[in-house]
Hints:
250 residues, alpha/beta, TIM Barrel, 11 helices, globular, binds phosphoenolpyruvate, glycolysis, cytoplasm
Amino acid sequence: MPHRPYIVGNWKMNGTRAMLAEARAIDRAAGRYPDVQIGLAPPFTLVHTIASEAQAIGTGGQDCHTEAKGAHTGDVAAAMLADAGADFVILGHSERRRDHGESDALVKAKAEAALGSGLGIIVCVGETLEQRDAGQAEAVVQAQVAASLPSAAMAEEAGMARVAVAYEPVWAIGTGRVAAVEDVVAMHQAIRQTLVDWSADLGEKVRILYGGSVNADNARDLLAADGVGGALVGGASLTAESFLAIVAAA
Length: 250
Ligand code: PEP
């Protein structure tokens, strides 16, 4: 892999100010792992505090709107995230696709808004169990990648460091079920093919993260798998201890 592994915690809808202690502990320890790029995506309410204190980790949002401002109650613009100090944003997480009906086209528009505001993006894709059982996993995920990524021209202008894809099989998120390493490798190869078709310039370089019940016990094998450029971590990112164990495994 051309980059440092990228390990990103997604706190989802977890975290009040009481959890800032965990973020501070992660940031303090991050200096011990200069070969790992570390990101943390707390709820919007904590982005500014974490971003303004962080020395060694990147801070991210978990979603953004396509528009820069306007009558969209409850939404947050990419430029607002950037203004709060965020470095990146997670887009198209399967929980957003499920809970908010987000389509690939919407994720693409959000990705372009985020790049336009100077943020990095992590675009999430992944198949359901039904799709995997029907033998459709690779086709479904390749179609999601092709339709959810920003235009290649925008991404090329932003540069490879600001674009990542996270492969997160829906059935592995928060379930304790982890994809088999050989399936992860096969899917990462399929995603890489799609990326190369998308951009001759960036396709080989964009990092592909794995997400889905990553923890201290399975992280080493997953992160050593061919083509895996890092991990997107949900439940195990909620304490500094469990998250740093994954960082150490990278
Ligand atoms: C996620 O939310 O992106 C995720 C992978 O969650 P978990 O690690 O809890 O499965």
